[in-house]
Amino acid sequence: MKDGLYKTVRFNNPAYIGDPINVVKIFNEKGADEIVLLDIAATKENIQINFKKLSEIAGEAFMPMAYGGGIATYKDAQRTFDCGFEKVIINSAAEKNPSLITKIAKTYGSQSAVLSMDVKRDLFGRYRVYTRGGTKNTGLPPVEYAKKMELTGAGEIFLNAIHKDGTWNGYDIEIIKQVSKAVNIPVIASGGASGMDDFKKAIIDGGASAVAAASMFVYQKKGKGVLITFPTEELIL
Question: 118, 165, 172, 198: which is the annotated catalytic residue?
Answer without folding.
Answer: 118
